[in-house]
Write a structure and sequence with these properties.
By secondary structure, the chain is mainly alpha-helical. Among the domains are: 1-96, Alpha Horseshoe (Serine Threonine Protein Phosphatase 5, Tetratricopeptide repeat); 251-306 and 343-452, no CATH class; 310-341, no CATH class. The protein has helices spanning 3-14, 17-26, 30-35, 43-50, 53-62, 77-83, 87-96, 111-118, 121-130, 145-151, 155-167, 173-181, 191-197, 201-207, 224-227, 231-240, 254-259, 264-278, 281-303, 345-369, 374-397, 401-434, 440-448. α5 runs parallel beside α7, α9 (121-130) packs parallel to α11 (155-167) and α20 runs antiparallel to α21 (374-397). The longest helix is centred in the C-terminal third of the chain and has 34 residues, at 401-434.
Length: 452
């Protein structure tokens, strides 16, 4: 170690900012020398062990890269801060750079993992507020912070993590909650397996009320009920609906799905999904506007068909009717024809066919282009009811029974197809969400696991 490095170490140990700048005046690259070393004991590492918050802040400002540099033991300054109980310095570091919550040190442990291991619930809460994505990080053993909290018997930290998963409103929160709660470590054990191994009845009682998979198998095809040794834990699991692995049929693997014959419904769904992913957001919005305008225009024909409808007078006592004073159609009809279109059967049938096709195409376009998920599923219901109301209105104003019966058939077929498409799209969307390649955790799990 040269003289400059010795003096820099002394400045860090004493927290002497004046000495720091004296050294910088003597050698403008005094901090750069350490930055070029792959593993180095920087001034930030030294001050992390002894305190001196102001000196640490000054170094962070001058050389931000020091905060994520590993020393020879595989620790960053923020890891050392946590090991030495320097909470104020940890929070200052995170306040300056929130991504430090996710910096990985020895064995892939992040400061978030350290907080879970040590049961620092205040730090956990602050880390989650500063960097919510930190809960997705896993160690070299493929353990999440929840696994670590259970192994370390930090139940309160475990409750904080589960509580955050249940309450978070970030994008993809539902999928994230299921993924983290059912994440497998290198042995294939979920947190439910770990709780059973630890005979942690409190954690088991908490987990059975969440979205954890009670019958998930590890790499040895054992469920949590199989590996539970405690009688109380077994009772809790059994009452919640957990089963033994031997009684659960393994789901088809991803290779099995690829080898299977593709069905017509799958071809349709793949076609729809490819359309969704190929169009731009501007194109999607334009198509939705046009489809909505077409649907509105075609629906109007069911309310006001060309030529109008036969009018009836409420005072005719179910006998004859006379035209309404406001009616534009000067036609007298029996009460049985009231509300029926004045068009001939042939004209009405032609109008009905083209109009219905236009409406169905526009509705299916909106269905295809509407983003999937919970909101998309909710919107599919009013679209379905919209078409049903249109078909019923056309049946009511139909001038003869044959055309009316045709609308009944059309409504039935549309209902079956629409509900089948909605159900299939929902299944595929959940599958795609579960295997989203943008998330490192889910990608790794789909490769290492036994199931698609």
């Amino acid at each position: 170690m040269n003289t400059s490095d010795d003096k820099l170490k002394v400045a860090a140990q004493e927290g002497d900012i004046s000495l720091l700048y004296t050294l910088i005046q003597e050698d403008l690259h005094v901090l750069d020398h350490m930055d070029l070393t792959p593993f180095a004991e920087t001034p930030l590492h030294i001050v992390a062990c002894v305190g001196h918050l102001q000196f640490a802040t000054e170094i962070m400002r001058l050389k931000p890269s020091f905060a994520s540099k590993l020393n020879q033991q595989g620790f960053t300054p923020i890891h050392l801060d946590m090991q030495h109980g320097q909470k104020r310095m940890v929070l200052r570091f995170v306040d300056i750079n929130k991504d430090l919550v996710r910096v990985k040190g020895r064995e892939g442990l992040t400061p978030f993992h350290f907080a879970s291991q040590k049961g620092e619930i205040d730090l956990l809460a602050n880390f989650l507020l500063a960097c919510p994505d930190s809960i997705e990080d896993v160690t070299v053993r493929c353990e999440t912070a929840l696994h670590i909290a259970l192994r370390s018997q930090q139940y309160e930290a475990f409750r904080v993590l589960v509580g955050w998963l249940q309450r978070t409103r970030q994008r993809g929160a539902t999928t994230l909650e299921k993924t983290i709660l059912n994440w497998r470590n290198e042995e294939g054990n979920t947190i439910l397996h770990v709780s059973a191994l630890m005979n942690d009845s409190k954690a088991i009682r908490l987990l059975v009320k969440t979205k954890v998979d009670l019958n998930a198998k590890n790499w040895e095809n054992l469920t949590a009920l199989d590996i539970a040794a405690n009688a109380e834990v077994k009772i809790v699991l059994a009452k919640a609906g957990a089963k033994h692995g031997s009684s659960i049929t393994n789901a088809p693997t991803f290779p099995d799905k690829l080898r299977s014959n593709i069905t017509l419904m799958e071809k349709i769904i793949i076609f729809i999904l490819r359309i969704r992913r190929d169009i731009t957001e501007d194109q999607r919005n334009a198509f939705l506007i046009v489809a909505a305008l077409v649907a509105t225009a075609t629906y109007q024909s069911a309310l006001s068909p060309p030529g109008g409808v036969y009018q009836a007078n409420a005072g005719d006592n179910n006998t004859n009717s006379t035209p309404s004073l406001n009616s534009t159609v000067a036609t007298t009809a029996t009460h049985g024809n009231a509300g029926k279109s004045v068009m001939t059967v042939g004209d009405f049938l032609t109008l009905s066919i083209f109009n219905t096709l236009s409406l169905l195409v526009s509705i299916m376009t909106m269905f295809i282009l509407t983003p999937s998920g919970t909101v998309g599923s909710i919107l599919s219901a009013p679209m379905f009811l919209f078409v049903s109301c249109y078909l019923h209105s056309m049946k009511v104003i139909s001038p003869d029974n044959a055309t009316s019966f045709g609308h009944y058939i059309t409504a039935s077929l549309f209902s079956i197809l629409y509900l089948a498409a909605s159900w299939s799209m929902a299944k595929v969307y959940k599958r795609l969400q579960h295997h989203d390649k943008n998330r490192e955790m889910k990608t790794w799990n789909s490769i290492a696991g036994n199931r698609w």
